[in-house]
């Protein structure tokens, strides 16, 4: 069961939880499970190109469509980041 | 628990306001730090505590890097800007900024470690526009980029460096201004 760190702006969708444990053998399964448990988080899939994922502090390279092939161990910590931008 | 969307006021200690201004002035002067993207733009993160619908700023985190020219952010920003940015003398590819994910993650982690709420981001406007001499409100582009963010956009007017000002808008919406009270 991987531990997902929810960034502050998304916590309104997770009952203000900072960390959520989700079952899954791959990164895509865990993200899917997260959105299933907290449907408000589907916004993270609205702009997949902007979503950055870190596993144990290391950024995952590759596109979201390739996350099926990113395995997760039960003690992995996954952080999600959507950058902040301005004009 | 209070939520940012319900905040009615922002308390900003004068020392932190000076810290923000120092960041803006340093960037305007072209005095860049090692590892900092060398552009005359200043932006960063503000964090603090939130209680009784009052946000108290406790931490200023200037952001050093701009991922504007890095894929996939370049394509995203080019697309959004082509649709929403107003005409300007500044070339499109030099306009807009976007945080580096790794740097932003470090900011978020620090705020979590210190038990602070991330309020949002600040950035400065430096050029007056026709009909908008102070530029202390979000542009249409700022509003689009902050949509759904659940964060506050702090806009700093540095059009006249001698008379800077800052205003705050939930999700960059001009109709959702939150008054700032400089304290101390």
User: In CATH terms, what is the architecture of chain A?
Assistant: Roll
Count of strand segments of chain A: 6
Which oligomeric state applies? Answer: heterodimer
Number of strands of chain B: 9
- Output the CATH class name of chain B: Alpha Beta
**CATH topology value of chain A:** Ubiquitin-like (UB roll)
Would you tell me the structural class of the helices and strands of chain B?
alpha/beta
Largest sheet of chain A: 5 strands, mixed
Give, in spatial order, the strands making up the sheet with the most strands of chain B.
8-7-6-5-2-3-1-9
In DSSP terms (H or I, runs of 4 or more residues), the helix count of chain A works out at 1
Query: What does the radius of gyration of chain B come to?
Result: 16 Å
Strand content of chain A: 15-25%
CATH topology of chain B: Cytidine Deaminase, domain 2
CATH H-level superfamily of chain A? Beta-grasp domain
**Shape of chain B from CA axes?**
globular
- The sequence of SSEs of chain A as H and E is EEHEEEE
Overall radius of gyration of chain A: 12 Å
Number of helices of chain B: 4
Mean pLDDT, all residues of chain B? 93
Q: CATH class of chain A, please? A: Alpha Beta
Second rung of CATH, namely the architecture of chain B:
3-Layer(aba) Sandwich
């Amino acid at each position: 069961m991987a531990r997902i760190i929810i960034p502050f702006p998304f916590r309104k969708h997770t009952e203000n939880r900072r960390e959520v444990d989700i079952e899954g053998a791959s990164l895509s399964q865990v993200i899917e499970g997260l959105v299933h448990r907290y449907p408000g988080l589907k916004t993270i899939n609205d702009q997949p190109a902007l979503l950055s994922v870190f596993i144990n502090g290391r950024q995952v390279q590759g596109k979201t469509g390739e996350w099926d092939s990113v395995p997760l161990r039960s003690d992995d910590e996954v952080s999600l980041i959507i950058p902040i931008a301005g004009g | 628990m209070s939520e940012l969307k319900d905040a009615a006021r922002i308390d900003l200690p004068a020392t932190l306001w000076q810290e923000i201004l120092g960041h803006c002035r340093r960037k305007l002067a072209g005095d860049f730090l090692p590892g900092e993207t060398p552009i005359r733009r200043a932006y960063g993160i503000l964090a603090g505590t939130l209680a009784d619908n009052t946000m108290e700023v406790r931490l200023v985190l200037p952001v050093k890097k701009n991922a504007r020219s890095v894929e996939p952010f370049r394509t995203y920003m080019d697309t959004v800007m082509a649709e929403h940015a107003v005409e300007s003398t500044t070339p499109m590819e030099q306009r807009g900024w976007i945080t580096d994910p790794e740097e932003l993650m470090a900011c978020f982690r620090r705020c979590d470690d210190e038990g602070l709420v991330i309020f949002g981001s600040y950035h400065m406007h430096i050029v007056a526009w026709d009909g908008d001499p102070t530029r202390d409100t979000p542009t249409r582009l700022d509003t689009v980029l902050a949509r759904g963010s659940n964060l506050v956009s702090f806009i700093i007017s540095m059009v006249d460096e001698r008379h800077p000002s800052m205003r705050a808008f939930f999700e960059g919406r001009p109709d959702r201004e939150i008054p700032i009270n400089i304290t101390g």
